[in-house]
Amino acid sequence: MLDFSQFSALTFDCYGTLIDWESGIQSALRPLLTAQGISLSDNQILEAYGALEAELEQGDFRSYRSILQGVVEGFGKRYSFEVTSEIRDTLVTTFDNWIPFPDTVEALERLGKRFSLNVLSNVDNDLFALSAKHLKVSFTHVITAQQVGSYKPNPRNFEVDLETLRLPKKRILHVAQSLYHDIAPARQLGLATVWVNRRHDREGAGATPVASAVPDIVVPDLKSLADLVDQQEIKQRE
Predict the structure, then answer these.
(1) Rounded to an integer, what distance in angstroms lies between the CA atom of residue 33 and that of residue 42?
(2) Residue 176: which of 165, 187, 168, 163 has the closest Cα?
(3) For an engineered disulfide with 176, which of 13, 21, 217, 219 has Cβ 3.0 to 4.6 Å away?
(4) Which of 145, 180, 179 is CA-nearest to residue 66?
(5) pLDDT-derived band of residue 33, with 50, 70 and 90 as boundaries?
(6) Distance CA 178, CA 20 (A)
(7) Tell me, what's the pLDDT at 237?
């Protein structure tokens, strides 16, 4: 078990960790696919999304808005339907409907009493602003892919994170759902990590590519992390 008292800052992945992006993705894409006469399971939709997104993020940098549009275009090519300009914006126009997990806001408020809260996310500044309204807490730093010019798991995103926080690595704890985007590269750079395994009760990797990494702690949700921090603090006071 980590000694949480050694950390002064938490850095969070946002989508999949704080925001229930898989529900948002499904809510946007399922009506589109159904209208095209295409029947896919939840896992098939999410795995196709994850593969298409990862491929687009590995090429020349483009905005996340463009990535979302490219994912829809990818579905059109994969399942043979025409992508009009309106269809192309399906994910972009519904982005504001991607909301936090039920435990997120309360857990962030609790954790914010002990640590500075920061975000390191594969997103555009204006799109994160839509999510920030739902998260309802103040973050010390928000570092986006748009600011860095690359997408996680590129180590440059984590290097900019370290440069921005201006803290020793041992004072930073990275909290994320994706082994591929976050836990693996963070571990390689020597950061302590918490894997929020939001899919612990479901099969498959969902909307993130499969990856192998060993986090310092595994929790099923953010509330469980906040509980661990509180419990450890109580024991240390005794």
Answers:
(1) 12
(2) 187
(3) 13
(4) 145
(5) very high
(6) 13
(7) 84
